[in-house]
Specification:
Length: about 190
């Protein structure tokens, strides 16, 4: 039996392969490159076609991408093979996975929310490792389990060195061509040494 999230996302990535493949790396990362050490291991959680992972791999980082969608990872692998980028991929349900302790230099979590993962990130990052996190804030209507409450993300990592926390309203691009404004929370934080 297929995982329901895999079914949903495989169909989105199949229908909109070009749109997903051609996305730019996340600005939250490209605007904080000064915080990153010159090389290391990046984990892109629910990375999809991993535009940011491909950008970092092209700049000397080793990247591992996990996602429930095989279709997304196939698209990403096709692009990264063409550019001979050092990226590895695995298909996995990430709602509450085990990850090795003190293993990653950087973790990326963009537009995917599973709160049990926060404890996992605390363990899986090396001391001094960086977490980049951005996803939607809740608004009336949608299922609140998939959306952050205001200040929730900052409070969850309050004991880390926080370089950036912002709640921003932005135009969210739509696969169907339209645009609408959505609120997101952004965090860049370093695990204590
Ligand atoms: C909005 S996309 C974000 C993709 C990427 N992080 C980015 O910022 O472009 C959400 C991603 O979460 C993945 N996803 C959804 N449910 C998942 C699950 N249970 N386990 C792992 N990945 C999941 C989807 O396949 C999709 O790639």
């Amino acid at each position: 039996m297929q995982h329901p999230d895999a079914l949903r996302w495989d169909s989105r990535y199949s229908d909109e392969a070009d749109w997903y493949s051609l996305r730019s790396p996340r600005h939250l990362v490209t605007s904080h490159l000064n915080l990153l050490p010159p090389n290391g291991l990046v984990l892109d959680m629910a990375g999809g076609t991993t535009s940011t992972g491909r950008y970092l791999a092209a700049h000397g980082w080793r990247v591992m991408v996990l996602d429930v969608s095989l279709v997304a990872l196939q698209l990403a692998r096709k692009k990264s093979n063409k550019e001979s980028l050092p990226i590895s991929f695995a298909v996995l349900d990430l709602m509450n996975p085990w990850l090795p302790a003190s293993h990653f230099d950087v973790i990326l979590n963009f537009y995917f929310l599973s709160r049990p993962l926060w404890d996992t990130y605390r363990k899986a990052l090396k001391p001094g490792g960086l977490l980049f996190f951005e996803t939607y804030l809740s608004e009336p209507g949608p299922d609140p389990t998939h959306y952050l409450n205001t200040q929730e993300l900052r409070l969850a990592f309050n004991d880390w060195q926080i370089f950036h926390y912002l709640e921003v309203e932005r135009l969210a691009p739509s696969r169907k061509g339209g645009q609408r404004t959505r609120w997101s929370a952004q965090l860049v934080a370093r695990k204590p040494e």
